[in-house]
Amino acid sequence: MKKEIVGMLLAGGEGKRLGLLTKHLAKPAVHFGGKYRIIDFTLSNCSNSKIHTVGVLTQYSPLELNRHIGIGKPWDMDRQRDGLATLSPYTAQDGGSWYKGTADAISQNIHYIDQYDPEYILVISGDHIYQMDYRKMLEQHKETGSEATISVMEVPWDEASRFGILNTRENLEIYEFDEKPANPKNNLASMGIYIFTWASLRNYLIEDMKKEDSSHDFGKDIIPAMLNDDHRMFAYRFDGYWKDVGTVKSYWEANMDLLEEDLSLSLNNREWRTYSHDSHYPPHYVDQDGKVNNSLVTSGSWISGSVNHSVLFERVDIGKGSVVEDSILHPSVSVGSDCTIKRAIIMEETVIPDETVINGEQYDEPVVINQQNIADFNGVKGGR
Amino acid sequence: MKKEIVGMLLAGGEGKRLGLLTKHLAKPAVHFGGKYRIIDFTLSNCSNSKIHTVGVLTQYSPLELNRHIGIGKPWDMDRQRDGLATLSPYTAQDGGSWYKGTADAISQNIHYIDQYDPEYILVISGDHIYQMDYRKMLEQHKETGSEATISVMEVPWDEASRFGILNTRENLEIYEFDEKPANPKNNLASMGIYIFTWASLRNYLIEDMKKEDSSHDFGKDIIPAMLNDDHRMFAYRFDGYWKDVGTVKSYWEANMDLLEEDLSLSLNNREWRTYSHDSHYPPHYVDQDGKVNNSLVTSGSWISGSVNHSVLFERVDIGKGSVVEDSILHPSVSVGSDCTIKRAIIMEETVIPDETVINGEQYDEPVVINQQNIADFNGVKGGR
Amino acid sequence: MKELMGLINIEHEHDFLEELTYFRCGAATPFAGRYRLIDFTLSNMVNSGVDEVAVFTNHKYRSIMDHLSTGADWELARRHGGIFILPPDWNDPSDISKGDLRHFHNNRDYFHRSTAEHVVISGSQFLANMKYERAFERHLETDADVTCITVPVENVLPEHSPQLRINEDENGWVTGFSNDPENKNVFSNVYIIKKDLLLKLVDQCIAYHKDHFFMDGIKDNLPDLAIQSFHYRGYTMFINSVESFYRNNMSLLEPDHFKSLFFKNHYIRTKTSNEPPVKYKEDSSVSSSMLANGCVVEGEVQDSVLFRGVNVAKNATIKNSVIMQRCKVEEGAYLENVILDKDVHVSSGQKLIGSKEKPFIAAKRQRI
Amino acid sequence: MKELMGLINIEHEHDFLEELTYFRCGAATPFAGRYRLIDFTLSNMVNSGVDEVAVFTNHKYRSIMDHLSTGADWELARRHGGIFILPPDWNDPSDISKGDLRHFHNNRDYFHRSTAEHVVISGSQFLANMKYERAFERHLETDADVTCITVPVENVLPEHSPQLRINEDENGWVTGFSNDPENKNVFSNVYIIKKDLLLKLVDQCIAYHKDHFFMDGIKDNLPDLAIQSFHYRGYTMFINSVESFYRNNMSLLEPDHFKSLFFKNHYIRTKTSNEPPVKYKEDSSVSSSMLANGCVVEGEVQDSVLFRGVNVAKNATIKNSVIMQRCKVEEGAYLENVILDKDVHVSSGQKLIGSKEKPFIAAKRQRI
After folding, report:
1. Mutate which of C256, C257, C279 to test chain A, going by most A C-beta atoms within 10 A?
2. What's the CA gap between C238 and C234, in Å, rounded?
3. Cβ-defined contact of A292 to C287 (cutoff 8 Å)
């Protein structure tokens, strides 16, 4: 069954820098934004861009991730002959191997892609937060007759050395890829979103598999190899909101960003919905002592305390006299009475006893709390 | 969410003895019975036994298998909080490992089972053909207060030494497990279907994981260990049809068995349906020259030749003047005119040219034909 | 355990909700922020392990079909069993059945094809979060023909008046049905009946040109039937008028009531949606209120129920009100004792005030 | 490409099939072994990339609802878009629309919520395996208001007589509609129309109390509209009488016809089932016949269509017949020129013979 374009979504990374959040959970499955998981954003982008044939490459702690994505129903990808497929490492007659890099994960699934005989292939990651119409990028790819199109965004010049920078001609044709350049020549950073002409990429993947010294990575190996062969490659400019939630700090920031008034990314955008699963919890309740400002609050929650500048997931209880600020509370967190919680990320089902004080303001990164480590962070009330 | 019983379906084996049939395909996904795949029988057993929480353990070439089972819709297992889950090998913070044996596959997914806090666990394989009500076995398990119940069938005494034999007391309590005994004391062979009391099995699995010399196999390690500790274990007698389709010969036989009149297993049994996917092919057509006897024929096929004692899958064409006997033709096989095909298994999408003669009668096992090896088997017409 | 099949019969329920039921049937009336009345009964059945449920609908059934859809949100999208929404569509010229007997007669298949031996039957106007298991056990233990679930109420409220009252002896056997306002043992319209008996009574009702299965087939046959009364003592509501609809929405805002209905037992299931979390802005002020996902709140909300996707602009005030899906209340508007149906748009500065006894009601899609 | 939305309008189709349509509407009539008439149109739409389809049903819509269900078998079980089965359920007392305009009027939402700018509209009685892409391209190229798909037939058959004929100029512009039996350019009742125009014509028809959207809104407005005629030259059938139903079933048994309808283009989709492969027993003898899954054949079958799950016992003979789902034909029975509806049971030794012109018909569930 022929498809013009097939999406390959890399969702197997361990996300080490997210620490506790990814201890038993694949990074794309981490809770985000009050009722979503990180991967919902890219899956919704595919669905809204009408790309319904998507392979999701999983490897690290995939149980919850698999349960979440299922056969893709929330994203309208539960289809008979195409739709969503979960591609995990497997064995074959010549043995099996784990996915060794982003490119290797795709290479090991060439037979999956070949089923659809696509013209193009979209390679994306399951750990970025953004809303983007891939069709527009595909249109540019076709118009320019590129072998590869890489989505880029402008970053401040003084931060450019932290990114993979694409050096382009005026027409956005790429002539060089600079990974974290000391003296950047440009400020267009790669967002890790690629469209390739499949026939061309396929050859590079097969070549790359043979190279023993390759790290089998798109940025480090495939793109440089293609540039080296003088292939026609273009950058695609993206102006909207984009965030890699790779660290606890950036994860926290991205959640807090959702509370901004004029963010270009909006969960309330009815033209570009973010899809996920919905629960059967009742509407949340704010009682006569509750106070909520500048926050997201979700079904099943019960607010008797004060919540400010925070993101609360489903079924969160905030006891009387408690104050929650600058924090993210995952599903089924229960905060007792007279607690103070600042700049903290509280993980699923943590029960916080009365009068607990957790103040993340004293640390560089927001603190991540679960039932096991809560005692380590519990300060003395009034001691802030 | 508590469940009384959770099913764990082992579907990761390579099925080496099926040769070509499993070269690129997990054994449970091999076509069977005219429109099914082997795993449909065990999944339908679960569904008919109202066990809707099932983990399917995959490892070897799972792409088609995954696509086939999806989230379990044909078996009514597409549920929100339980239902079917595909459990493939994964990495965790301490690295990853492949499933090393039947018990190891379960051990690596203890966290999956624990979610449902089950009393009992059903362990089955995805490569047996039978129709069985697991509830009845569970009833016996509860009545006898066993730690483990193993399903057994009587085999002829002179074949008993080819099986894993359970030596039991008169009340069916097991006191010994004899793997392929030279001098069998009993003729009750294990069918590889187990019900365990989860709390008990869980301990044995954890102990077994620590043993470096263990092969991590239920039959070789777990059951003997439990017997060794004098646990209460019973055999459960099964009288119906059961077949392990582990070799090309047994695969062929099991297909041919479906043509028997008085087989206790029936695809037409409306009380115990075998579920699978259905296609959108039109009804099959037998033209004025076609002749079909003693066979199974499926949607989309076109019969202009003569078909006897054979199983034809979907979208099979049999040309004029051709004779097909004692054979299995997988989906989309096209047989030209004036061919003779005897005792052969023709794999998916093979196109057989006019006047081809394939005679499997001269070999010990039926021949397995695909597009690549067809020339090796093509004999001279009339040379039979 | 012998299995139980379900039937929700709304044939005899009228559309009591004035503007709110011009285009939907009573059972499809939105309630408590994200539900419809029928969700409570349907969830109770599903949570009690019933996995085949038929719905006998009357007119305006599109609202029910749209809401229940495939039944997937109630785990009832099954290949076998599941949900059967049965609108009136009958074409047998020889059919002489009347009233709800037409449903029973034309949908006999539903009862025959199931292996269940008992049927739990309910309307949509009795709301509780209950499981039927205990009533069913009792039904089987006493070998009753019919078991009626009753609610012993403390105070008789206006919404109880149309409900039958039940007299019973010391062993729970029903000795009489009445509408005696002094009798505080109120019938919930939920009952369990042996399937064979049901089919027999259906035949009998049809033969005698009756038109109400419960009244004619069961109540009037009391002398010949062994009918048990099973008392349910949890939190309950009867919704059968605008007044009871509004009052019960308000009453649910008492924390104890809210918790009894939603957190004491299983969750009530409803149609799922894609709404994001509620967004509270800088100046929002909300108290004693329930808010469904998708709302954006900048103004003040007190003692109110906000359904999905409601927008409350800066300096707008909402008090003692029920605001349904996707309403927009603009800057400076003031609403008190108001019911807004879906998609109502209240312009800047408007003031709408109803009374507690007679709230101000705005029908769907109005601009005010 | 500008998108296309679909509408299957069976409001004006009558139930032509005598016993076979007592309990189902014409569109739900079983055809060709495993299909219903409506499957052909619906599949054509889906295979042309249309992913929102509304069905305006008339009476006896339960048969359509049961068959189409969630639309999943046509890949139309979508969260957005997908299938909308719209039975007549209208409750607006101020509604003055009549005929099929009531559907258009009461389901305006369907047209408004879509971003598609054109609508392909069809009935259920024209059967073909075609894609609408080429007609749509032509519709856009010529900037037509309406594009009618026509079939230039060689021989005028009885089933063509109720169909409109179309006169056109050399550029394909329609110059007239008629029922002239000499005109061999038969209108298929499939047409593509600009959505804005559709909504405008609906308003106009309602204002003037019209009751037939195509006849009153399009045909009678021909002078003011630019209407293209697009010729379709593949294998086609019109099924609008028992005679044409039977003859076309038989005609499909010609290998060329069968291949043209089923293997030339995409597959026709239908409701999937769980039937096993057909089991041919030792003494079976089958020729020039199509058999759907689930049949068990021991006897003789010639020039016949067997639907799912039919049982043909030893020494039974079936010739030139259409045998629907789950019929049982017992030992020694002889059937020639017969149509059996679902679940008919023909006892041992029975002989049923109809004529080619007037086949013997047995209604659902009879025992003969």
Report:
1. C279
2. 13
3. no
Q: What is the rounded distance in angstroms from the CA atom of residue A11 to the CA atom of residue A56?
A: 6
Rounded Cα–Cα distance for residues A125 and A370 (Å): 27
Q: What burial class does residue A133 get, using C-beta atoms within 10 Å of its C-beta: 0-12 exposed, 13-18 middle, 19+ buried?
A: middle
**Quick one: three-class SS letters along A169-184?**
CCCCEEEEEEECCCCC
Judge whether C345 and C328 are in contact, CB under 8 Å: yes
Of the candidates B91, B95, B75, the one whose C-alpha atom is nearest the C-alpha of residue B83 is B75
**Chain B / chain C CB contacts < 8 angstroms:** 8
Dmax (CA) of chain C: 68
Q: What residue has token string 């097909």?
A: B324
CB atoms within 10 A of CB D141: 9
Helix (H) or strand (E) holding D139: helix D133-141
Residue D118: beta bridge partners? D4, D194
Can you give the pLDDT at residue D248?
95
Measured between alpha carbons, how far is C228 from A160 in angstroms, rounded to an integer? 78
Chain B's closest residue to D254, CA to CA, is B287
In the structure encoding, which two tokens stand for residue B121, read together? 């666990």
Mapped onto helix, strand or coil, the DSSP state of residue B378 is coil
Our CA angle for C152, C157, C158, nearest 5°, is 135
Of D361, A281, A40, B313, residue with least CA distance to C33: A281
**Alpha carbon distance B122, A53 (integer Å):** 35
Closest-CA residue of chain D to C63: D89
Amino acid at A234: F
pTM above 0.80, yes or no: yes
Calculate mean pLDDT across residues D354-367.
91
Q: Which residue has the tokens 């009330």?
A: A381
Phi-psi region of B211 (alpha: psi -120 to 50; beta: other; left: phi over 0): beta
Write out pLDDT tens, residues D18-63.
Answer: 778 777 888 999 999 999 999 999 999 999 999 999 999 888 888 8
Concatenating the DSSP letter of every residue in D94-126 gives T----TTHHHHHHTHHHHHT---SEEEEE-SSE
Interface test with A, best of B22, B63, B108 (most A CBs within 10 A): B63
CB atoms within 10 A of CB B212: 5
φ/ψ (deg, to 5) at D90: -125, 140
Contacts of C306 in chain A (CB under 8 A): 283
At A142, the amino acid letter reads K
Give me the amino acid identity at D277: P
Say yes or no: C59 contacts chain D, CB-CB below 8 A: yes
DSSP D1: -
3-state secondary structure of B123: strand
In the structure encoding, which two tokens stand for residue B289, read together?
């020259």
How would residue C1 be classed by pLDDT, with cut points 50, 70 and 90?
very low
Residue A175: which residues within 8 A CB-CB, separation 6 or more?
Answer: A167, A168, A169, A227
Q: What angle do CA A214, A218, A221 make, to 5 degrees?
A: 35
- Whole-number CA gyration radius for chain A: 22
Residues contacting A317, CB < 8 A, separation 6+ = A301, A302, A304, A333, A334, A335
Strand partners, A197: A120
What is chain B's mean pLDDT, rounded? 92
- Residue B374, phi then psi, degrees to nearest 5: -60, -35
Mean pLDDT split into 10-residue runs, chain A, 384 residues:
92 85 91 96 95 93 88 84 86 82 93 94 95 97 96 92 91 91 92 96 94 91 92 94 92 95 88 91 96 97 97 97 97 96 96 94 91 86 46
Collect all residues from D whose CB is shorter than 8 A from any CB in A.
75, 77-80
Pairing of the two strands C4-9 and C52-56: parallel
Q: Give dist(CA B132, CA B149) in Å, integer.
A: 15
